[in-house]
Amino acid sequence: MSTRRASSLRRRLLLGLLTPLLTLVALGGITDYRTGLQVADDAYDYALTSTAIALAARLELDKDHDLDVDLPAAAEAILRADASDQIFFAVTDVHGRLISGDPSLLELAMPPGSANPGFRNVRRGAQPLRVATYHYQGPEGSATIVVAETTLKRQRAARTVLASAIWPNLLMCVATLLIVALGVHIALRPLDELSGELDRRPPDALGPIAEGDTPREARTLVAALNRLMARLQQAAAAQQAFISNAAHQLRTPLAGLQTQLDLALDAPPEQAHARLAAIRAAAARLVHLTQQMLALARAQPEAAASQEWQRLELSALLEEAAGEQLDKAIAQDVDLGFEPAPAGVNGSHWLLHEMLANLIDNAIAHTPAGGQVTVRCGLDPAGLGFIEVEDSGPGIADAERAHVTERFYRVPGTRRAGSGLGLAIVRECVERHAGHLDIATAGNGHGARIRVTLPTA
Length: 457
Prior knowledge:
Blueprint: H1 9-57, E1 59-61, E2 67-69, H2 73-80, E3 87-93, E4 98-101, E5 118-124, E6 127-138, E7 141-150, H3 152-187, H4 189-200, H5 216-266, H6 272-298, H7 301-304, E8 309-313, H8 314-331, E9 335-339, E10 344-348, H9 349-365, E11 372-379, E12 385-391, H10 422-432, E13 436-441, E14 448-454
Helix pairs in contact: 1-3, 5-6, 8-9, 9-10
């Protein structure tokens, strides 16, 4: 079975914030980069347009009334001068004849009717160019002026814009994360204090945790811990009571066993058999009590959770009980009868078997010789499974029915030896199966009838 490594709440919060923050940084950087790059391109395009207009201002008619450019060599040198990029230009008349400049730019001119001036990016060989086309119309005539430059300073500007867009956003992201980390640390401090308080508690301190300044979001956790503490406190109290009662119950048969051993050692040989029989009976009572206490312990919620749950047929459980309890019933001259009917439930075989065994054992023990014990199972009108044990003994008084399922409780005036755990075990088994236990008078008007109702599978 694979296990996932648990991460801290702080780490999960910071990682949860990091993704949207980085996304915002990326979107902000892209937006700033595109905006800054557009501003830089507009500035450089304006410079190209100014160059084209300056060339247009040099247009004039020669002596043959043909369009010409009055551009001395010094002026051309100034026009082409640039610290980073190379400048190219070409001027053509209305017929496409080159008047001045670089012939290779003729094919890069944008046709009339497009934006004026118009711009585009082209590549001439391995060299990227930014090209501006300006269609001029004036008293001298019409001309097309193409100005192009390499893109080194544009690329440098792009890198500068990118850096100026990314670094501030990254620094803002880091600063935000630091502030958020500090805020998370402060916000989670009550949980750290709660953890420290629990660590400092001694093992026997099961009282409730004071909410104090606990944030509203953590109060449900504190409330759940307090409920757990209350259950642990109840379990500890029940365990202590069980141990005290068990010690008290074991003391009597152990003392009796010791007394019988002392008497057997001092008794004459002709009384040895009787003394050994008494010792055997005391040991049997001690074994029975120990088994009852172990069964009660296994029926507790903590131990019952480890039991295997499966679909069980109640009639099959009755058949098992018949084989185990029949000899005891015969020995006590009790007529033990079974009336099984099909009924399937989902539960623990051991718990239900122990429950049924204690019900039958308790009924046989309280039924006088010649009496009857009847065990039934099946489905009731509501569709629930049931187990019913009815005897012809003295029955259980109404005032005692609420107490007979308590641990080590014995009805006052009862002479029969017993541990007082039988019906307590039955109650625990019924509760583990979300069933219902009902104690009533038998159908014949005397005796007891104990009925257990269980959800069907």
